[in-house]
Amino acid sequence: MEIGNQIKKHRGRLKWSQEQLAEKAYVSRQTISNWENDKSYPDIHSLLILGKLFNISLDELVKGDVEAMKNEINKNDVKKFNSLAWILTGMYILMVVSPLPLVKYLGWIGGAIWGAIAAVAIITAIKVEKMKKENNIQTYKEISAFMEGKPLDEISADRLKKANRTAMKFMYGIISAVAALTVCAAIAYFMSK
């Protein structure tokens, strides 16, 4: 990525230390160092602040980074992500539908099978979240949208909607898991009588 080089170049042009730039950009000196060494990427608000401080356009600041960001999530990652999403959906459906028949016809072995299904669902969910973090989808999307001329308010509102949707999905997942565990507990209780 070129952003680190751009920050170094413009900071040097203004003869500012990392600490001076950090103070003006409302971040820590370590954050500036991470940006310059490509260990992390500034969010859209930090990019706007840097552009103003350096008196350059956002376009000039990010130079070739936008195209690199668009290509960051390659087709294989998208396919893998979609596959994991389908597996996760299937696992959630099995978790809700299968406990009663499994326990009724297979007893404790059915409960163990249901536990294995739940474990696969949890592992898949963790992999999906890891892929989202690795690809930093949200930040890249914001920058790309901004470069296409969308106002920041619209980008922030879109991010807030997505965050709310994610929170709702998480809550539905928790509710589904609790419901499934309750059904299993009820089945186990009535079968033990």
Describe it:
- The chain folds into two domains: 61 residues, 434 Repressor (Amino-terminal Domain); 120 residues.
- It is 84% helix and 0% strand.
- It has eleven helices and no strands.
- α1 packs across α3, α7 packs parallel to α11 and α10 packs antiparallel against α11.
- The longest helix has 41 residues.
- The model has no long low-confidence stretch (mean pLDDT 77).
Compact summary:
The chain has 193 residues and is an all-alpha fold. The chain is built from 11 helices and no strands.
Q: Provide mean pLDDT, rounded.
A: 77
Helix amount, in percent? over 70%
Distance between the termini: 65 Å
Largest sheet: none
- Number of separate structural domains: 2
Strand content: under 5%
Number of continuous helical runs: 11
| Poorly predicted runs of 5 or more residues | none
E-strand count:
0
| Sequence of secondary-structure elements | HHHHHHHHHHH
- What is the structural class? mainly alpha
Rg is 24 Å
Gross morphology is rod-shaped
What structural keywords apply?
193 residues, 84% helix, mainly alpha, 434 Repressor (Amino-terminal Domain), 11 helices, 2 domains
Secondary structure topology:
Layout: H1 3-13, H2 18-25, H3 29-36, H4 44-54, H5 58-62, H6 65-72, H7 75-97, H8 99-106, H9 108-135, H10 137-147, H11 152-192
Helix pairs in contact: 1-3, 2-3, 7-9, 7-11, 8-9, 8-11, 10-11
